[in-house]
Write the structure tokens for this entry.
Amino acid sequence: MNPVFAGAVKVDDIFWSRYIELVRCTIVPYQWEVMNDRVPGVAKSHAIANIRIAAGREKGEFYGKRFQDSDVAKWLEAVAFCLATRRDPALEATADDLIETLGEAQWPDGYLNTYFTLAKKGERWTNERESHELYIAGHLIEAAVAYFRATGKRRFLEIMMRNADHIDAVFGPEEGKLHGYPGHQVIEMALAKLYEATGEPRYLTLATYFLDERGKRPHFFELEAAARGEPGDLGPFGAKMFEYNQSHLPVRGQKKAVGHAVRAVYMYSGMADVAALADDESLAEACAALWDDVVRHQMAVTGGIGQLEWWEGFSRDYDLPNDTPYNETCASIGLMFWAARMNRLAPRGEYYDVAEQALYNGILSGLALDGKSYFYTNLLDVVPEEVAARLDAEYSGAARRGWFPCACCPPNLARLIASIGGYVYSTSESALAVQLFIASSANVTVGGVGARITLSGDYLRDGRMSIAVEPERPARFTLMVRIPGWCKGASARLAARGSAPAPLPGEVVDGYLRVEREWRPGDRVELDLPMPPRRIRANPLVRADAGKVAIARGPLVYCLEGVDNGPLLSDITLARDPKFTTAYEPALLGGVTSIRGEATRSAGGWDGALYREADFAAVPVGIKAIPYYAWANRGENEMKVWVNQG
Amino acid sequence: MNPVFAGAVKVDDIFWSRYIELVRCTIVPYQWEVMNDRVPGVAKSHAIANIRIAAGREKGEFYGKRFQDSDVAKWLEAVAFCLATRRDPALEATADDLIETLGEAQWPDGYLNTYFTLAKKGERWTNERESHELYIAGHLIEAAVAYFRATGKRRFLEIMMRNADHIDAVFGPEEGKLHGYPGHQVIEMALAKLYEATGEPRYLTLATYFLDERGKRPHFFELEAAARGEPGDLGPFGAKMFEYNQSHLPVRGQKKAVGHAVRAVYMYSGMADVAALADDESLAEACAALWDDVVRHQMAVTGGIGQLEWWEGFSRDYDLPNDTPYNETCASIGLMFWAARMNRLAPRGEYYDVAEQALYNGILSGLALDGKSYFYTNLLDVVPEEVAARLDAEYSGAARRGWFPCACCPPNLARLIASIGGYVYSTSESALAVQLFIASSANVTVGGVGARITLSGDYLRDGRMSIAVEPERPARFTLMVRIPGWCKGASARLAARGSAPAPLPGEVVDGYLRVEREWRPGDRVELDLPMPPRRIRANPLVRADAGKVAIARGPLVYCLEGVDNGPLLSDITLARDPKFTTAYEPALLGGVTSIRGEATRSAGGWDGALYREADFAAVPVGIKAIPYYAWANRGENEMKVWVNQG
């Protein structure tokens, strides 16, 4: 199936419209100001200046990470998605001018990268392990494709086609070319998009080449190091380098997710793209094995991945600490990219179950409700004084930050949210699928007939959605509606045009309710996905969660926050039957359903003692849980997802 | 009160005699071989060679840490205590020759240190923050005093008096001397011992000077750095340097234990020594405040201290992780040193409660039952694959190691165990105290009369001890018997000479049962300290132990080990009433009382899922707990002290 492009989906959702407007009205302008170094008190960016200097428009020196350009690329992609659904001449003029600047910074041969233009001119294409040259190219290509699809303007696309053509001239199997691949993946996804946008098969071939070259021996990164006169240089991760960037094995032979989590899921996304576009079965099989590994062994309940801080990556199976994980926002975003692509390859509700799990929890938690501060790591158990003592306190903390020296996450959030409509629907020749429950409408073609599909309802409030299907004329096709894995007692009724709702014929296959019939204008499906509060347990192999439960409701994982429950959340033990009640609180955190329940705290009388003989005295307390994504919007305080269960 | 010297106490205890013989017959010879680099497969020592080279007996270069000499010092101290209770001509000859070698390595001015003799000749006394020169001197002085008291031989003592006199000429308030103090404390304790052994008051004055100079501004370590031409050098801990080595405040103003734990408790021990010997009340008050801080906020249930790996030291209050603490063996040994000195200052049962807690748990855990391998860090929750991934895996692990590049702990264990008799009794003019329940006898003077005291019984087996008091003639004094804080229902009866046991008059004051009467030869106290298994809870402010209990019996903390309970100990939840039973198992781990009880494990049926809705199904299992000190003697496996409590 093919996803319906975000620009073709009009989101009109009580939850998501607020976020989309936040991107449009706050985040995009805010990040532009930050990248222009006009926001005091946040980490310096200089990203726009780097481009202007490389273009010759300004004097100055490069500043920042070698991948600083990628922040701009992701921001431009967010702008593209904003423009796709509502034109904004001023914003478009800013973007167009920035695109022109990029064009001016491009080398005659198509090369485009400010770090290697300004700071390390003679070193381009000599250290792909660390240089991020292909990473920057990939993000710029993605932005260019989005900008083209959103605005119809070809300038940015043409710049990046020239860049891609240059890369194609540098890398490849032919003699004289570099037989290499990126140290940080993303170009694979990008080239797949460029192929789809342009129809140029060389781009798909190059994406496939980058994937299949990986893991070959002698190892490209060793050959590169030798060519630089640095034989034996394995970089900061030493012998773990090959795992770190997933070049330890040919990708078709990889079964375990290892190494840097963002690199990993970006690569797996590219693998799924190529598998779909080239109908490549062994790549699809590798993707499926890796998927199972991640979601069965290495994923936090919030959809966070990458537990080890020191390499921002995967750990041992079931090593899922709550107080010290990494769970980078970008990694969960990448997991969602991958999930969507797995669903494209072979639709299964499980893929969007995970996408939804990541989206509503470990991704949105990266963003403050006001759009102006961000979590880089997303912890599940936070005590402010403990996280302040972390070695990576600059990237972890009890409070979101306005920017980071390595600022990958903030613009990644912007582009994802701006494109969220693109994850709602997919179509094939004979089917129309609803993947996420975001109130919206789209004009699609299915069964050879144009049709309008409209989702309405307030999913997070009550799990009730109405799906109106309006083909131009009666048409036979299958409506596929994902029934979330978390849902018990889902039901659907069909209100055929002018009739009262009646039980819907259809069955759930691979997580999708499938209704094949002749659909007529005015048909409507009423979906009821009951979402009472529930408790989640982790597999006993997850040591960190032993004796604990996570509270959830629908797709939302909940947490206890100090502001509602006082300090020392570790002392709270949920009652065996916590008698949960829910209340929609419109004034709380932008409008959330809170959960209250019964628990105990230990009795006092310690008189300063550190240890004493157990007496198990406890006092009853009420707890209040809020959605995890919304925590840390009421000042620094404790937060806990996994709560002791009595 | 003054402790009765170890050499005057004949230990005849089923538990401790085995350990003392292990030191004598195995550990002392083994460590000698290691320090001579004749044990394959362990970290290189070279400590004896360094001394022989410095003495001119061998050619070669210095190898090892700059404090490598201190390993030899502690080993010599262990030898001294071995010789104190049983002469061994061969061992004594080895020691005497080594002492001669030290004398040959000594500079004409009394300086003695192989690192600064061989490797950094011109740099002596230029960087006391890092050099460990006073640390080595301190350990050698302690060894020399012990050797003198054990053998009556003065040679080693005289060498170290010359060394102390040299130090006294280098440091002090007079103009032209260094107004400084050690980066790693121990010299304070050592000088106090030297003062007691020689009666020379300059040594006590110098100890007091080293304490009182600390924390003054401008800061000695900054002045030192400037004198070296390295102004601004704060060492590896940067701005934390002052806290790291407890030079952030004058010692009399220190209320919080901070920094490197071994340095801290060695210094607090020296403070308590000076407080006792100089009758210094404000030092005693500082000691009391620091004591309260450590035992009420910063001590593991095993008597482990120093929770932070990165500086081997104290953390925030109540930050007592089980899987990642440091709990260095030397730090618990130092805590016991300090506890004994606090008891000397003002006898309180609490001090020896803590000494006993450290001794039987976090100290003895440092030693394998065969004496040939050692834990440097003492974790409370070990999963082999997790500790193997620790950054400090060289010093932490699921298995003890034969030696370490920094080998402070192994000889520290040897000297402590060899001197254990010295912790059993104290006397004052009018009182005789029993602090630890180690079967032994000693000839003491109390109430102006010579008396023999004999403890018999098997404390760890049943908590029943018999205390026979035999004054040369009837004498009035107070017998003080510590009633352990963990004990409920302690009782004591007096069997006056020739009479049947009868209730003992006396009351418990500050943790000691005090019986003042006229004691006559043949009097006997029968003490019953019931020790059923009990569960310990930690103060709720200790987040790591929330919802968990530790199993204990008498002074012993117990643990679950994988070999008895299978893997995945985190999945075990103790029953609300675990119905503990005990069994003495003579063939297990040298003879231990094991504890069995009822628990549950989570039910299966996960089918590879990582998360699922909570169902709380559980299956009953039995658990078996063993004393913590004895774990890791049956191969690498999991271990857990704090167990989930249902």
Q: What stands out?
A: The two ends of chain B are 46 Å apart (CA to CA).
